[in-house]
Amino acid sequence: MTKIECILRPGKLEEVKDALGKFGINGMTVTQVIGCGLQKGRTEVYRGAEYSINLLPKVKVEIVIRDQDVNQVVNLIAQAARTGEIGDGKIFVYPVADAIRIRTGEKGESAI
Q1: Which of 1, 16, 54, 97 could join 41 via S-S bond, C-beta 3.0 to 4.6 A?
Q2: CA atoms of 19 and 105, how far apart (whole Å)
Q3: Structurally, how many domains does the chain consist of?
Q4: CB proximity list for 88: less than 8 A, separation 6 or greater
Q5: CA distance 10 to 77
Q6: Which residue would you say has higher pLDDT here, 101 or 40?
Q7: Model pLDDT for residues 43-102, shown as the tens digit of each residue
Q8: Residue 25: closest CA among 17, 14, 13
Q9: Which SS3 state, helix, strand or coil, does residue 23 take?
Q10: What does DSSP assign to residue 110?
Q11: In the 8-state DSSP scheme, what is residue 20?
Q12: Helical packing angle, 13-23 and 70-81, nearest 10°
């Protein structure tokens, strides 16, 4: 099993969810986060004072999938989330040793 963690623009969440749903992935964890990368934030003016916003709102999507689906799912997420601009996000891929469904006690791939 493999965990895929994506940091995305908030406006791309629905497109990514739809693409994952069409692939058959419905279980995911979504968290609102803030962060910075190459985008380095932006400068705004409020009541005449200029200030820098260097932590921007993002969305983190976490899914656990079968190992054989990793390349397809990563490509699917990248296509759905891409705008071509700085700040599109990142995808991280981690191995998962085991998963247990608390309600039934199922283990491994049957638990996801």
Answers
A1: 54
A2: 29
A3: 1
A4: 8, 9, 12, 81, 82
A5: 14
A6: 101
A7: 667 677 766 677 889 999 999 999 999 999 999 999 999 999 988 999 999 999 999 999
A8: 17
A9: helix
A10: G
A11: H
A12: 150
pTM of this prediction? 0.85
Please tell me the total number of residues recorded for the chain in this structure: 112
Q: What angle do CA 40, 61, 79 make, to 5 degrees?
A: 75
Taking the alpha carbons at both ends of the chain, their separation in whole angstroms is 9
Q: Which letter, b or e, does each residue of 55-68 get, where b requires 16 or more Cβ atoms within 10 Å of its Cβ?
A: ebebbbbebbbeee
Token couple for 11:
């406006």
Residue 44 one-letter amino acid = E
Longest C-alpha distance within the chain, in Å? Answer: 59
* CATH code, domain with 84: 3.30.70.120
Range of the domain at 8: 2-111
Q: In this structure, what token pair is assigned to residue 17? A: 């969810």
Cβ atoms 82, 15 nearer than 8 A: no
Structure tokens at 23: 């692939």
* Token output for 100: 């247990």
